[in-house]
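Field log, afternoon session.

UNIT: design team B
ACTIVITY: writing a sequence onto a fixed backbone
BACKBONE:
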């Protein structure tokens, strides 16, 4: 087997999540999309912006990054693999 410099790519299967948000948050997201269009000259739907906004938020949360580095919280997948016996 070859010893490639590039490791196996991670799972890139998208996940669809449906949520309900307040009217105020909905308006704020629309306002953000409007400001985005004014800033970059390209219109993007709110639904297209949200995943990138979430990534920026999570990457900017230092407490969350620290907790993940320290192994907490365990993901649902890793809990299932650890054989918790609940399934």
């Amino acid at each position: 087997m070859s010893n490639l410099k590039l490791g196996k790519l991670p799972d890139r299967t998208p996940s669809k999540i449906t949520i309900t948000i307040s009217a105020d948050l909905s308006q704020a997201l629309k306002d953000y999309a409007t400001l985005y269009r004014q800033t970059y000259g390209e219109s993007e739907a709110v639904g297209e912006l949200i995943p990138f906004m979430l990534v920026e938020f999570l990457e900017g949360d230092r407490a969350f990054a620290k907790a993940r580095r320290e192994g907490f919280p365990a993901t649902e997948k890793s809990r299932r693999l650890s054989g918790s016996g609940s399934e």
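LOG NOTE: Confidence is low (pLDDT under 50) at residues 78-87.
NEXT ACTIVITY: expression trials, pending approval
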